[in-house]
Write the structure tokens for this entry.
Amino acid sequence: MPKTDIQIAREAKMKPINEILANINVPDEPNAFSPMGRHIAKINLEYLDQLKEKKNGKLILVTAITPTPAGEGKTTTSVGLSDGLNKIGKKSIVCLREPSLGPSFGMKGGAAGGGYAQVVPMEQINLHFTGDFHAITSAHNLLSALIDNHIYWGNKLNIDVRRVVWKRVMDMNDRSLRSIVVDLGGIANGYPRQDGFDITVASEIMAIFCLANNLKDLEKRIGNITIAYTREKKPIFAKDLNAQGPMTVLLKEAIRPNVTQTLENNPAIIHGGPFANIAHGCNSVIATKAGLKLSDYVVTEAGFGADLGAEKFLDIKCRKSEIKPDCVVIVATIRALKMHGGVPKEDLKNENVDALKKGLVNLERHINNTRKFGLPVTIAVNHFITDTDKEMNTLLDFCKTQGVKASKCTHWSNGSEGTTELAKNVVEICEETKNTFQYLYEDSLPLFKKIEKIAQEIYHASEVVADSKVRQQLKDFEEKGYGNLPVCIAKTQYSFSTDPNLKGAPTGHVLPVREVRLSSGAEFVVVVCGEIMTMPGLPRVPAADSIKLNDEGEIEGLF
């Protein structure tokens, strides 16, 4: 039996974090970084300020085909590619998101890679790590407490308790908290009102945390959060409660990027973690910019498929941070493409070239969508042991017809040895291709037109359907000066449509907009589509059922 991810991680020969940092020229001095134990550190923002004039390295965005239960391995490939770049003599850092406890104990599992392409210490990264998510949760819920406290003590701002738009959050999947009533129990507890919980990774604080350039920017954005409205529909902001100061204090340590290492002792920066199906799905701007100053190549990922994570990375993160990728890597697996071609999960181990050919339309769609941003593309074929030579050759031949290079990658079993070809392809693209990056839409386009642009150009929907209330909200946002903001679409990750069962590359479907939310601090508009929930639930059999401590006190069941 092959070793599990956690077994492989536990056998890792990790180096002290000061040695990892020394390899990217971060000095072992108090002003440069703060150790968080033997194998984790936080880089100090004061040190990063000293690197402002240093030339940026190349930025590689790793994305994927539409996810399936068969698995794609985007994080694993990101880690493997960064190790591969270091293997061929390039100084590379992988920049990843922090895992959320929700999926770690739910259905998806952790987000530290897998096999011999992992970041370590795996257990810490997948669980509490450096406490960043707890700090974000606390800052978010401090604002919730301040809102209800203000109402209780006379409500000087005349907040309409029916129009409080700031929910609470927790870093766990708990469907029972989606819609609740607070302040019950009589006059001593305040005014009863409807409320609810989102998962922490969907919090606007998480989005602000990941888009802020420094502490001052973080504080300013927090102050600009819209928390409620008066009866006259006048917006109330977090700064009206003087909330930005104490909230920033809670985030002061968390905002510093975390540095760990891969199994091959190469540096990894892991910081921030919004989901891509309900948020913008990228690690922090501070972390990415730090990587660009400290290395020749930064490998970073965007969550889920390219229709969600990559689009948001390019239209939101790049727009807000003024960075741009030099190359996009799309991860594909033969197993997943066969599922897109109609094969059930239990039959994926059997060769099925016809189904693979049918499923290739999904990869083709993602290739063409990425090219709309003016970016060069290469394909990483994440190899599984059940893949046959005939299937692999079919996929590689298809990529040739699309004019893109594809590499068979075996990093799960072979580490960096399995990604050297991909690494060489990436270097060649970065050195020889002129960057012609462009956004999908301009800032000046009306908000509903931006939604239509993404729906039609990326999802290939025939139209966007929204009721008069949603359309009026978008107009209100524009009248209040938010019309130039990008849009962040929340929808299922399992299809280009809002129907998770619609595989392949559907066309002509409708994008139904259920609600829109203004994130005036993060500076984008969230567009909730279909049945997507910003507080996920646990599956019938959650991963938590198998997670425990063994007799040696070691964690088992984490993946």
About this structure: The mean pLDDT is 95. DSSP finds 19 helices and 25 strands in the chain. The CA atoms of residues 75 and 113 lie 5 Å apart. The radius of gyration is 23 Å.
